[in-house]
User: Fold these one by one.
Assistant:
Number 1:
Amino acid sequence: MDQYDVVVIGFGPCGQMASLQLGQIGHSVIAIERHPQLYGLSRAGHVDDEIMRTFDRVGAGEEFREDAVAWELYDMRNKAFGGDLLMSLDWSLIGPHGHRGHWIFYQNNLELALNHRIEKLDNVEVHMDHEVVDIDQDVDGVEVRYRNRKSGEERTVRAQYAVAADGANSFVRNQLGITVTPGNDGPLQLVIDTVQKRELSFEFDNGQFADPERPGCLFQLGKTHRRWEFTLLPGETPEDMTIDKVWELLEPWVTPEDVEVLRHPVYQFRESMTDEWRRGRIFLIGDAAHILWPFAGEGMCNGLRDASALTWRLDLVMRGLANASVLDSYEGDRKPNMQGWTDLSREIGIPCIITDPEAAARRDGFLKAVQQDPSLMPPPTIPPGPTAFSRDADPLAGAPAVQGQVRDGDTVGLFDDVVGRGFQLITVDPTVLDGLTEENLEFLASIGTVVASVGDENATVVDEEGTYAGWFVTHGRVAVLARPDFWLYGSAADAEDVNALVADLRTALTSARTADSQPAVV
């Protein structure tokens, strides 16, 4: 029986990301996908600066940005044409991870960019047009039996761990009997994806038209595709959304001379949260673990966060650099963050899909008042950062690891590109690094930590735009310790605390399993 380090089930963007991150570290991976080729139909259409940083991490960012478009402005109007502006958000700013905060893209191009990186790895084996028919585990590993969907031939492989990225109808989740808690259901939504036949430009683009007569939205998907969405009205069914109806809805914008319709499915807004994200050596990521409304554009983003949060843990455990109890914190890190995104997506979405004229008028009046007095808007849900694996009582635990432009000699770029990725110990005071003990230095080296000061010419790299100086002053800390998934494990108040911070990480990674930790097999 062939042996791998990890078997990844599902080869959409989340399965691709898990396979790629593990493969680039050096682990042997087999990925199994039931479709005969990359899916070929776009679902996701937005990523944020954190996910753009993740693409750079695996070397796919440059190719991805060849077609992706930086999102400048997000508008909400009460009609697509001639309506009142209800809200306008400037989305052109640089986010904490060093990239523009919002990007719109065509998913096929993302999958190709990821796949091009995977094809360069001899240690990642991809089996398309194969479906998993059984999965089992014992205290030492996982066995997966899968079938060639054309020939019917079956094969069984063994791995240390399995990652289920097999979607909302996850075979793995159902096979394990893991339950799902449903959330709020919303209306039916018609999604129309198109590719342009000529250059298109609209006065109102990339936003919501919250028209109670037919709520909807229009977004670019990269440089050559566009998506319209329309809420089905009471009494309408998916069967009513024929291609003739599609062109009727698109008529104010385009005709068949302008675009080709690629797909026009109807789906329902749904929320769900898997009750267990792990069963022994098997982990769920992406839609297999959670589903949310699409309004924040963070569905796929959160699946990619799952992959990043899981892979660094698996890597350290498989290399013997961390105790297996580190895996226990995966769900605790991700689930609260995911619930926050679920709540925020619903909060954004509900005002956009109102079909009752009186309720819409009240909404319009409120949002116009907010334009005059922003304090009237209640604070939105802010998804919490991951703190299940972080330093206790640390004021920056679970905060984003800020990234800025730095200079090393003649080389100027983002910190990750210039200095390096992985665990990062960063300070604005080079002298605090002088006091690191030999034991702590050896530990940091063993897990591949980048240790750097950012400041003037005396530092490891120059803080080219003052990003780090301002950030450290704001928080009153001298150093931070970031995890490979770009979240802070913790921070230090002074030189002595830097040693304590590193020692705390060493203890957290290597300490034995606690009494309430999940056993290897359930």
Note: The first helix runs from residue 13 to 25.
Number 2:
Amino acid sequence: MSTAKIKEKSLARSTSVVSSATAFSRVLGLIREQVMAYFFGASMATDAFIMAFRVPNLLRDMFAEGALSAAFIPVFKERLVNRSEKEAFSLASILFTLIFLVVGLIVLLGIIAAPAIIFITANGFTENPEKFDLTVSLTRIMMVYLLLVSLSALVMGMLNSFGKFAIPALSAAMFNLGMVITVTIFLGFFQKPVYALAVGVLVGGVGQLAIQLPLLWKIGFRFKPIINIWDEGLRKVLKLVTPMIIGLSAGRINILISTFIASFLIEGSISYLNYSYRLMHFPMGVFAVALGTVTLPKVSEMAAKNDLRGLSRMFHEALSLNLFMLIPSAIFLAFYGNEIVEMIFQWGSFSKTDSEKTYMALLHYSYGLIGFATVRVIVPFYYAFKDSKTPMKISIIAVAVNILLYWPLTKLLNFAGLAAATSIGGLVNMALLVHYLPSKGIKIESSRVWLNTFRIVIAALLSCYIGKLVPFQFISQNLIVERIILFLVPVAVSVVSFLIFCYLFRVKEVNRIKNIFKRN
């Protein structure tokens, strides 16, 4: 497929495609969490699984969906634009071969060193030998997922570079679906039911890769094992990926420290933080991750053409869309978080006390959502200029701030203090990235950004307040229907109110969203 045939779409429209696919994936992700909460609650088993999955999951963020994908796309796109499709595919084959060798070795080492890894990262578990041994066994099973998701991320980067966003965005749905099916069908086949979750991770990882392969074949890629450490493109990718890994490592070390501290806190702390983080991550995945996914290939092409004016326009468009979606989402989580947790998780083994503690963590994750999401949108602009060192340095500073806040905030808020410190660190990261972006030649109209942000904040606060005032009572023998209705009525009022206020306050994104729906 020639690059000339790649259909160009507006940022908003492309983002809507990815957001729709990602929203479906995130809904399945919430169902996955519901299944886990229903069968296991916030227990020793869930703490063990979450801790065990955290190890390959953090490595995935560093080597796959985080660093590797972000480093690969600008170089791959540059070859497509300035050279030929054949040379771009050759680079891809070199990277596929490298992943098989390097990540395969990391997986093997992770399986062997699992006891040491859990001893270091969740030392509090050593007080309960059964919990420690269970976590080690689950870690060994799920380490293989790292190889599957690394290959999947590289395929996703290639497809995104060809303007193919929908199927790669749906790949996460296959992961969640694989877990849900495995747990619900095979739960009784295991002496320790939690092993069904670990096997589900592997089944989901296979599905995540497999769904993208037909489209990869369609664009013309044919894998050939190539070992060429002197390839110019590979050297560029490695030059980009090294500081990315260091920067992401700082953030991932921070998560491990957070988990380490949580392992000494009240039983279920890791589970409360995990469930609340998943809820916070839902709007971020639907909007910010989707927007960042679409933005990176587009700004990489503009950077290759040295189109600074286009990059400035793209920055304001991406930032405005991000703030329009994520500010009301953050305020919404703060206002309605308790109702959301009860509706989604308070079933089976998940008690009302579990809901209250999960909401406590969610409340302190909610304001961090704006920082986490905006970082996802801004970082691609640095990567487009092949600058991964600046985000790395800023990430390290933000993590240092985060870690310094752990002690005082956990003393004040217990496990919720870990969420609060993480959120503040995310906001610091965002502020520094925005501050240094003009050094790349991208002009930022600060007054325009601040005015737009102020309008969106006021509209979101007013709409959520109005939604909370709505008197509504629903009487039914069906508890599921009652919960859903009691939740959706005030939410619908809040959403409609928000759009009306944004229209009155002349927030331009309302018209953009309206035009997307008209075209679709």
Note: The chain has a mean pLDDT of 81.
Number 3:
Amino acid sequence: MKNLKYFPFERSRYFYGKLLTVDDFETEQKYMNDKRRMANRFLHGSGVVCGMNVVRVDDRTISMEMGLALDFAGREIVVDAPVIRKLDMIDGYGDNAGEDGYLYLCIEYAEGETEPVHSITGAGARGTGEVEYNKYAEGYRIFFTAQEPEHEGFTTANYYQDTKTVYWGNGIRIKQSLRRFLKAGGPAVLSIMVENMGQQQSFAFDYELALTCLQYNGKDRLQVHFDEKDFPKAGRYRLDFTLAAMDVRDAEGGAQVVSDSLRLLVGGKSVTAQAAGGNLCRVSGGSADRAVMDQYYRTAMEDIVRNTYQQSIYLAKIALIKAGPSYYIENVETMPFRQYVFNGSLSAAMNDIILEELNRLRKERGENAAAQAAPKAPLPVRNVASGSVVINLGIGGTEGQRFFSAELSHGLGLGNVHIGLGMAWDINDDAVVICGSPEIFDEEGGEVLAEMAAKADVTKGTFVVGLRLIAATSARHVRIHWTAVRDGKEAVKDQEQRRLFIRPDVCELGVRETRYFQAIFENVSDQRVKWSVKEPQGGEIDENGMYTAPNTVGVYEIAAESPAHPELRASTYVVVRDPAQG
């Protein structure tokens, strides 16, 4: 009953008079078990379905809750009652405790013979006497190990993420992670995960990566630098580098460690170490999501059937503190490798939550669009402005001499305006004002005969008044009254057409996935933009619009604002999912 192969399928064929043997009944059981286990493994995967949470009871005791899991062969592992154990009562504790400062609690399928009975043949089938066992009891085995899984392809993340260990030694492990499928010309995030596996001294390292079909800041080389002193003290650290996939089609790319490039310092002293390996990816012009699905359908059968060696489910990582000859529990990390089975009920619930949020966002956007499309009341626009300026003539002027005012602002905004001018021979407010040629009026006391003009700058909303004397004068000042007029319809049109929006609209990303957002301006010359994420833990976006999703699933709002025109603001929403959960 410990078979790990599903195929070939054979079942007993019954007929009258057939002599049934033990082999016939075992074939019947094997056929039904293999069919069910094959469906479990291929349709649902392997890992914890529910329960099996591990918690710390006291300094030397842990508890495992009830639960259900499917192992790598599709066999059901049922824990039908909570299990409380002292550390030294669990297999593997004495052999592994103390080596790295932590232990992994694992569970495996197990079965054993039970219910001894008398054999009527006089001898057991195995020649051990008259006693045989009537049943198999299916159960489980829990044990400790200090070893991590033999390979990194045992979780669903392996379908879309290539994760490799490039260095493991001196109590330090360095892993690299890169998406398996990238879109040509798009962004790619290379993650460097650093784990302190018990190293008590601070450490730092540098190494170089050779990039194929990828670039970092326009180069095909990436220098990785890490210093533990630059981070808050923790057991795990992460560095993210945003790369750019080159504009190629169906090409193999990757990030490989350059030989002999690793420089490791532990406690400030150089340590001999070698890093090797790296990540592979495929760059194409098609959809990366579709490529993941196509790859799964092509290779899943072979991968599942080939990997029939024993693979455990890692329930918890337990950090230990040595105290004399004994060890005590410091903390318990549940499901360190996220080996879960994402079942249909949970998937439906998550989809309902996300759909409700999307519908709410679409409704809000629809209402906003309807409000924007509704007839608007006329905007209060200023169309006429007036004022005066005194031009200093010094001690007078000669015929043909020109004088100019300083640059004046009419206050009507940018664009074309008409400016009318009038001249007063006296700077007092009750002086007579002449608009047009002063030669037409034979006014007494008129001391200044001059031509006037105004020069407007439509890009700045300013103008300058000029004056040319027709005849010499001894006057020292002249006041020019001005009136600026702008077409009200033109002003309203300019304000209505000034817009800011973001592309793309609502989109979906995986955790820690990146996406470039673009701010689109209409009728705005100053196209600077200030990006922000509304939620404090909603991810990060840089000054260029490159957004990195957080580790937590949810819906987050990204906003863009114009520093030059604070009234221009737009937002979009990002739905962050965890691809490992379906």
Note: The mean pLDDT is 83.
Number 4:
Amino acid sequence: MENLFKRTNRVFSRGAPLPDRFPGQGRLEGHGPVAVIDIGSNSVRLVAYERLARALTPLYNEKVLCGLGRGLAKTGSLSDEAVELTLATLARFRHLADQMRIKSLRVIATAAVREASNGQVFLSNAERILSSPLTILSGDEEARAAALGVQSGFYRPEGIVGDLGGGSLELVAVEPGHIGQGVSHKLGVIRIQEEADDDARRAHKIAVSRLEGDEIAARLAGRTLYLVGGTWRNLAKLHMAITGYPLSVMHGYAIDADAFSGFSQDVMRGKYADHDAMKAVSRSRKALLPFGASVLRALCDVGKPKRVVLSALGVREGLLFDDLDEAEKQRDPLFDAAFELAILRSRSPDHARELADWTGQAFDALGIDETEDEARLRRAASLLADIGWRAHPDYRGIQSHNIIAHAPFSGVDHPGRLYLAMANYYRHQGLSDTKLNGTLEGILTDYQRERAHLLGALFRVAYALTASMPGVLPETRLDVSESDRLTLYLPVHLSGLQGERLTKRLSSLARLVERSEAVVAVR
């Protein structure tokens, strides 16, 4: 008689033969990649995104510091050396765009090309090399695009956007659904470094004199200043390193404005020039850092904001955001990004959506109130709850935490990001696991940590019921109407799901909601 195990194994191993070549499964279907080439006064950058969407996912990012604006303040023209390097960089970027099969390529230039006497000659040569039109943004257009980038990257931002480049500083007010009139100042880091003869304190005085009387800067008082631009990002990197901040994610990094202004003054004076933390700063940005600090210090002196928040999204993302229709602009970028990860990494995106609804119903049943922002974070965490399933069981929690904590999400601040990560850490590692205590989750308040704990407990009950498959959760419900008892109701046809694992996880949840008894009931 044929061995039963061998026969069964043969049956289960049958399947379509694997192809010789595999299409990438880590990409979403869409309209194809889009890209922006941004020709700035200091850097020239190519950024490609997976597709045009509310939540942009970077596909490729390359920057070359061409220094196109260096010397412009004194000569009025772009130097031959900088032009030669920039045109060579554009030729490379054109090849890369073709290799990536970019469907839509946007090419923009800002202050240096806008102001140079030979800017039009450069534009003609650049368009010939790129075989694409090049748009020179005005100061107002640059300010508006930066504000749109902040609108795309934050949930209902309100404050003033400051976009610092090599040649100019743009300021513009931003509110949910509205952008004010922008203004452009000749305060770019390369320009002010040259005007101040490489003296950061003198640069600060120049910046103060140009910002005094500015209506938009005056409206900063007590509000949020959103910082856009590579030099300011590097200034924040240094601040993270000096203070030992545990989350190395730039977008959404928030700092008290007075504290950051004082730190900027220290940078201006060279306090950290030889500090080990300076390793966090890009080598090419180190010489410009004191001048970025001088402009920021001046803006804080004049405007007196309450806090500063770093934005990784700016002009490039703003231009693409402007291409979306109004309905897409109103979508929540955090939901879209979380659901994209669910599509790419979870066992069932449909189950992820069911889980988002089920946890909301569970919170209602348990009498747990939520603010609007707390509800959107809970839903996002639910969409992300199964992205780590391919990892080894011992490391699913850590891997999920790491992916979520460092993902290129927009529409979420750092505490919110860590809340999402910790809820999913507890979902995998268990409610008593404390391996991460004192590290990243230190950014959370006790209240947020308790909420993450509770949501992780709900996830553990849900996955004990469903094995990550859709169709089960909508037929179950939690109830606390009986005194001191938490009851999970199952329909008759799901009664076979009862068991030790489900009961243990329900009991853990019961303790968190201060119920002494947990019961699985069929009706």
Note: The longest strand covers residues 58-65.
